[in-house]
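User: My instructor asked us to take a sequence, write out its structure as tokens, and then describe one feature of it. I'm not sure where to start. Here is the sequence I was given:
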Amino acid sequence: MELINQHTKRIMEGCKERARLAGLSFTDESLEYIVTNRDLLELSPKVMIPTLYDYWVHDVEVLRERGKYELYPNNPYETVINTRPPISFYNDNNPDWLNVMIFYHVLGHIDFFQNNLYFRHTWDYDFTGQALSDKRVIAKLRAEKGRWVDYVIEFARSIDNLVDFHGELADLFTPPEADCSARLNYYFDVFLQAEKKIPVSEYIKEVNRYNDCKKAYGELGEKTFFAEAERRYPELEAHFARTAGTHPAPKKDLLRYLLDKSEFLAKDENIWMRSILEIVRKTSIFFQPQIRTKILNEGWASYWHEALFLQDDRIKGHEVDFARVHAGVTSMPRVGMNPYALGMRLFEHVGEQADKGRISFEFQRLKNASERNQFDNDTGAGKNFIFKVRENLSDYLFLKNYLDQDFIDKHKLFVAGKRLDKQRMVWQYYVKSRKAQDYQQMIQDTLYHPPVISVDEKRCFDGNLYLMHKFEGKQLVQEYIANTMVGIEYLWGAPVHLETSEAHMLPATATSANTDEAPEGEITWKRVIYSMNGKVLSRSEI
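Assistant: Let's start with the prediction itself. The structure tokens for your sequence are:
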């Protein structure tokens, strides 16, 4: 592995100038390395951070990628790391025209990393340097503690998807206490949400009403705001006085709770384990936004590598080569999902809709297809709007807000179903739905969505740890429960209980059994408690 030569570096700097003129924003410094195709494949299993701490799962993933490369040799294009400065890796056999395209793609990623608010917590430090320090800490502990280090890493990694990523972001964006009184915090955080349980739409209206009062009345804005609130809720003052204006207890993820509350980890002989839990938790939080913005991020980079490359005079004579590579990266499959293709075309769609003024209630209320097709206010706001989308949204919000029926119809997308051909005894795939909500749901089902599991301190009797799974329509993967709870019990040092919901399938009805679809019975959900005591798992129904 070595830095790119000066000729290739000049190409990159030229790409930076053109990208900035188009509106992209990123730091001046960047590092570019060239590596072999095989080495480039092996960077991805290390979660794209070469300095990440050593762990046996990383080695397994590297071996798996080597096996794939032997069977199906391919030419990966680039890997880029969200660090300070950003680091990117390229094949050692790329021609100049291909490097121009790849550099634009990488600059799109860097712009996204440094401007999307879900990455806000990664902007203030260099993770590669921190990861190298963590790697050395774990290497030193391995020399002292042996295999117990890997046990603790394994236990921590089994619950590192439960980190409170949004809580970390909330701390960064919370305004100073002087701007938000205890009374105001209580009203919005506790009274409206926990006590009144008002709908989200009503909650947003209250937030907007407060902002309007602050703009109109300045220092008297809060007093004016509460005058109306007290008229609607006469009990507000009494409730606030009863709580003495205290904030609700901050929501802590399970790893953070173990670090703060575990008496086992607080013992002198176990204090070294805390360092490992901190490293695993910090690493997980760093990568959370990349998991949650894959479609948005890859779509943004693909959108700009196409837009900028086609305007670059350095591609002359290689238009066909570019078309072949670009089509391979961004082709829209008939069945399945390509995040590069979907994200890029959604950005194009959003830009076109904003240019025509269709991101508005005036357009949304139109039902006539002919009127919708002819609607064009020619606002010219498309470019500015997609930059706002890039800054503020995650994959879920991107799809929820903009993957509409017009987009589905334009690209002729559909949800595929399968049924049994009883004559040939094979499964047949067919067009099940062309509705936007069905396609949107299919894509959202593929998005990262870890379970919500919190500690219920009111039920933590006799030193036991009681975990509550907030059921959201999907049960936990049962085969992982036992091993995960063994790890939690070890780190907690006492028995652990987990309350969750499980599906119970009732027998399929006669009508459903006679259809061509796979027969399905009715599902009922029951709350159950798993208990881990002395590495023995038990289960009981509530």
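For the description part of your assignment, you could build on this observation: Residues 452-541 form one domain. Try explaining in your own words what that tells you about the chain.
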